């Protein structure tokens, strides 16, 4: 049996952060250099759909725009659906697909968690909000994103940012994804 991970705490935190975004912040830059805050919110909307479909093993339904034009209701609802989809034990079994990549579902679920936490951190930093993450999620993510010995030091995230070995766990996780934990807006 796969070690199922609860995405609910991370999703709740990201949803809370979304509620704190003001309209005048949508054009602000983020630590994720290719995204403004508005672009980042669109990315969250897209990955919430893609990873929800991956949990359901629904490979035929394309992610599509929602008829609800209000991202303030649409994106939190899609994040809630993401947490719900990964709360099912069978979501973590077999192989699944997202973004044109096929992986074991237990790995894909961890990447879904990574998207929620890391982009939550991006959003918090870009909008001047505090960010916290539960210890279980950080443990899972550190194991996922830490460069592997004798492997590609950048992994799928880009070159890691150097931090002290005794840096807080959140800073280490963020740095392993190529972000500077000291970044500010």
Which runs of at least 5 residues are low in confidence (pLDDT < 50)? none
Could you state the order of secondary-structure elements as H and E?
HHHEEHHH
CATH superfamily of the domain at 8-134: dinb family like domain
Instruction: Kindly report the CATH topology of the domain at 8-134.
Output: Four Helix Bundle (Hemerythrin (Met), subunit A)
Overall spatial form: globular
For the record, the CATH architecture of the domain at 8-134 stands as: Up-down Bundle
Helix count, DSSP H or I runs of 4 or more residues:
6
Largest sheet: 2 strands, antiparallel
Mean pLDDT: 91
List keywords for this structure.
mainly alpha, globular, 185 residues, 6 helices, Four Helix Bundle (Hemerythrin (Met), subunit A), two-stranded antiparallel sheet, single chain
Q: Brief description of this entry?
A:
The model has no long low-confidence stretch (mean pLDDT 91). The protein has helices at residues 8-19, 37-56, 71-85, 105-127, 135-145, 169-176, and strands at 95-98, 101-104. It is built from six helices and two strands.
Overview of the molecule:
- With 185 residues, this protein is mainly alpha-helical.
- It has a domain at 8-134: Up-down Bundle (Four Helix Bundle (Hemerythrin (Met), subunit A)).
- It has helices spanning 8-19, 37-56, 71-85, 105-127, 135-145, 169-176; strands at residues 95-98, 101-104.
- The protein has a two-stranded antiparallel ribbon.
- The radius of gyration is 16 Å and the shape is globular.
- The model has no long low-confidence stretch (mean pLDDT 91).
């Amino acid at each position: 049996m796969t070690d199922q991970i609860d995405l609910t705490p991370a999703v709740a935190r990201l949803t809370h952060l979304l509620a704190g975004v003001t309209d005048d912040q949508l054009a602000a830059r983020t630590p994720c250099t290719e995204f403004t805050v508005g672009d980042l919110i669109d990315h969250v909307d897209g990955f919430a759909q893609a990873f929800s479909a991956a949990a359901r093993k629904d490979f035929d339904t394309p992610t599509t725009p929602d008829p609800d034009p209000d991202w303030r209701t649409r994106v939190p609802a899609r994040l809630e659906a993401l947490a719900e989809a990964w709360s099912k034990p069978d979501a973590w079994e077999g192989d699944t697909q997202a973004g044109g990549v096929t992986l074991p579902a237990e790995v894909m679920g961890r990447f879904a968690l990574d998207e929620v936490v890391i982009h939550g951190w991006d959003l918090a930093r870009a909008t001047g909000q505090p960010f916290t993450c539960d210890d279980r999620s950080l443990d899972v993510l550190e194991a996922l994103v830490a460069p592997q010995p004798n492997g590609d030091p950048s992994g799928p995230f880009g070159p890691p940012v150097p931090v002290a070995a005794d840096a807080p766990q959140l800073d280490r996780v963020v740095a392993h994804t190529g972000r500077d934990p000291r970044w500010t807006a």
